[in-house]
Design brief:
By secondary structure, the protein is mainly alpha-helical. It has helices spanning 26-53, 60-89, 96-129, 134-137, 140-166, 183-187, 195-206, 209-228, 233-266, 272-297, 299-315, and strands spanning 4-5, 13-15, 93-95, 169-170. The chain is built from eleven helices and four strands. The strands form two sheets. Strands 1-4 form a two-stranded antiparallel sheet. A two-stranded antiparallel sheet has the order 2-3. The N and C termini lie far apart (64 Å).
């Protein structure tokens, strides 16, 4: 049995997988994937442009929205080259260093999105429960500090994961289950003890999304309690309406994540292409839907987008 590791003089090559069992139809399958990537990239870029250009949107809520769009944009770019490369050109080979780099950014931006959603929940909590201190609590400096803390957290949890993957040795089977490098997928190909890698992966998961999700839930429990104490039904409705977009963003991030975990755990009898399609959908749903939700639900964003697009048409 051949054993490979990162110290070998020849580069270690892994093989990405497209949609198992649907190889002949990969060109047709690539069309909806390409469309989803176009929507994700253009939608999030437009949100960033709008927040940057419109002075009226230079507020905490929109700064956090721009963080979410930047994260979604980065998450889409992480997998675009390998996913479309496999589907369009059958480019399945990827070396170990490129695979580890993609894994770092893929998981890092996923955890970043979870952190941004928590920051947005805090924003809504302060705006509804303590509106008089909203601008003094969420200053520009504090928003920047929140962003830096999220970046430090990603590096702190992902760096040990990456370093211990580099120490693994791999056997002759180097075929990955997805069209991108996924930590669990990668360490399962190892022919050495990977228990430390599994523990580090679980620690990274629970210290990010595992911490953020209960905090988001707690913030909404406090928000609901505060809103229900408002006497006017019209004011209660307005308060809840300001949270609809964020609740939708939380749902489209965590529901596919939980569904994918359940399918991996209990859906072993399902065809392999079901796992692969769900894994790709999980990565694409938030970047595709978040700009649409915020454009539809937030009047200021919608008006700003229409104004910018109208100005461009007039210039043409």
């Amino acid at each position: 049995m051949l054993v490979f590791n990162s110290s070998n003089p020849s580069p270690l090559i892994f093989f990405l997988t497209g949609i198992p069992g649907l190889r002949a139809a990969r060109v047709w399958i690539s069309i909806p994937f390409c469309l989803l990537y176009v929507i994700a990239l253009s939608g999030n870029s437009l949100i960033l442009l709008v927040v940057f250009r419109e002075q009226s949107l230079h507020e905490p809520m929109y700064y956090f929205l721009s963080m979410l769009s930047a994260t979604d944009l980065s998450l889409s770019l992480c997998t675009l080259s390998t996913t479309l490369g496999v589907l369009w050109f059958d480019a399945q080979e990827i070396n170990l260093n490129a695979c580890i780099s993609q894994m770092f950014f893929l998981h890092g931006f996923t955890f970043m999105e979870s952190g941004v959603l928590l920051a947005m929940a805090f924003d809504r909590f302060v705006a509804i429960c303590d509106p008089l201190r909203y601008t003094t609590i969420l200053t520009n400096a504090r928003i920047a500090q929140i962003g830096v803390i999220m970046l430090i957290r990603i590096v702190a949890v992902m760096l040990p994961v990456v370093l211990f993957v580099k120490r693994l040795s791999f056997c002759s089977s180097l075929v990955l289950s997805h069209s991108y490098c996924y930590h669990v997928d990668l360490i399962q190909l190892s022919c050495t003890d990977n228990r430390i890698n599994s523990i580090l992966g679980l620690f990274a998961l629970f210290s990010t999304t595992g911490f953020d999700c209960p905090c988001i839930l707690l913030s909404y429990i406090l928000i609901i309690r505060s809103v229900l104490s408002i006497a006017s039904s019209e004011e209660r409705r307005k308060a809840f309406n300001t949270c609809v977009s964020h609740i939708s963003a939380v749902a489209i991030f965590y529901i596919p994540l939980i569904s994918l975990s359940l399918v991996h755990r209990y859906g072993r009898s399902a065809p392999p292409f079901v796992h692969t399609i769900m894994a790709n959908v999980f990565l694409l749903i938030p970047p595709v839907l978040n700009p649409i939700i915020y454009s539809v639900k937030m009047k200021q964003i919608r008006k700003a987008i229409i104004r910018i697009l109208f100005q461009k048409q007039c210039q043409i």
